[in-house]
């Protein structure tokens, strides 16, 4: 989900400052040192939202989107004019809830970015319109 510019892998609103365990180490201690289980996240997503919340489906697979293996576009749709993510399935629904993806600061950031893009496209690439 992240652009890769030191941003939180979940919300992209904040700088990634924490090493987050996708599979929570408190519930899955054998995954605690698995390199593929580490994500860069902001403190808000890691400590205030996701924490150890990690629902599984009937087959034991994670219901939150794993940004290292899942394509978020398969589960979430961004409404650019409002900055709100809409779930496309149960993974999207769980991720929005668990990570607080539609919290005010994230929605405002997405809305501001969309507004800036709408202003900049005519200035830099009128042929794109």
Condensed summary:
With 129 residues, the chain is of the alpha+beta class. It has helices spanning 43-50, 90-99, 104-124, and strands at 18-21, 38-41, 76-79, 84-87.
The unreliable regions are none
Strand content: 5-15%
Tell me the helix content. Answer: 25-40%
Radius of gyration: 16 Å
Mean pLDDT: 87
Distance between the termini: 27 Å
How many E strands?
Answer: 4
Number of separate structural domains? 1
Helices and strands, in N-to-C order? EEHEEHH
Query: Outline, from the CA principal axes?
Result: elongated
Task: Assign the structural class, choosing from mainly alpha, mainly beta, alpha/beta, alpha+beta, or little secondary structure.
Answer: alpha+beta
With helices defined by DSSP (H or I, 4 residues minimum), what is the helix count?
A: 3
């Amino acid at each position: 989900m992240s652009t890769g510019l030191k941003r939180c892998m979940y919300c992209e609103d904040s700088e990634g400052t924490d090493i987050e365990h996708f599979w929570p180490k408190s519930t899955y201690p054998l995954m605690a040192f698995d390199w593929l289980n580490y994500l860069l996240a902001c403190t808000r997503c890691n400590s205030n939202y996701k924490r150890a919340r990690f629902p599984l489906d009937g087959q034991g697979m994670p219901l939150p989107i794993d940004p290292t293996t899942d394509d978020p576009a398969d589960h979430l749709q961004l409404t650019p004019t409002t900055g709100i993510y809409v779930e496309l399935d149960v993974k999207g629904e769980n991720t929005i809830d668990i990570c607080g993806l539609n919290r005010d600061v994230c929605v405002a950031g997405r809305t501001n970015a969309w507004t800036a893009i709408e202003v900049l496209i005519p200035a830099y690439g009128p042929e794109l319109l």
